[in-house]
Automatic annotation (TrEMBL):
InterPro entries: Ankyrin_rpt, Ankyrin_rpt-contain_sf
Disordered: annotated span: 1-22
GO biological process, any: inflammatory response
Entries under SMART domains matching the protein: ANK
Protein name: NF-kappa-B inhibitor delta
Subunit structure: Interacts with NFKB1, RELA and RELB; in the nucleus.
Native organism taxonomy: Eukaryota, Metazoa, Chordata, Craniata, Vertebrata
Alphabetical UniProt keywords: ANK repeat, Inflammatory response, Nucleus, Repeat
A cellular-component GO term for this protein: nucleus
Pfam families associated with the record: Ank_2
Primary localization class, coarse: nucleus
Record family assignment: Belongs to the NF-kappa-B inhibitor family.
SUPFAM superfamilies given in the database record: Ankyrin repeat
Compartments where found: Nucleus
Amino acid sequence: MEVGSWKGSGLPSRPPQLPSLVTGPSLDTARAHMLALGPQRLLAQDEEGDTFLHLFAARGLRWAAYAAAEVLQKYRHLDIREHKGKTPLLVAAAANQPLIVEDLLNLGAEPNATDHQGRSVLHVAATYGLPGVLSAVINSGVRVDLEARDFEGLTPLHTAILALNVAMVSPDPCPRVLSIQARDRLSCVQMLLHMGADHTSQEIKSNKTVLHLAVQAANTILVQLLLELPQGDLRAFVNMKAHGNTALHMAAALPPGPHQEAIVRHLLAAGADPALRNLENEQPIHLLRPGPGPEGVSIE
């Protein structure tokens, strides 16, 4: 049979259950098992579109996944999709299997493949806070689209910021100890920035930058991190508008308290312009709410 000549017609509608023999201790053993299974069984999909490779990737069976991927690569089906549009690479990423992610990329899996929600491997890692998956992408040396947008108009960096905001909801504006989940999601933000993600990009629905998203969530740690990035024009970044509102407008509208005070202070120190007006002709000071203290927040 010639490479690439196999067709999917006439195959069983689903691959059988995972045979126990695929859990062998070495790649050579796994290759022998894949040879025994044959290409038709390896290329067959079940009612949810999963192949053996999808199942191996989801369960972290590295050598079985590698050997199966070699077969699918030979027949040009390495990026075959299951019912939600996930390629084996995306399944491996969602299952937090960095070694399999790196293997699949090295074997030629499409690094910018997306699922039915437009999410790439970077979006998946950002959503679930999986720094190991991002490390695998980096280690593979493949070129990935850091500015790819999912169907919500979000880049991987936007996604990572939103995920971190959820993990850092806390009454303490500057917690000394972050949860494991928050640390992992913060690592993803830092790694995406290190990879070259554009911190000035604006999400499509409301034109917010990552700074707007961080301020809106009163995420003091993240605001400080973004303002300390090496960038050409910090003042221009700080004063970017999202539907007319700067980050300082959003900070002024936060509930009074230590979160708001710290964020306003950081923004002003970074060059936020308190004289800028939004679409309602309001300056940030007009959005301040009465605070619990005798003086409240000063914006000047």
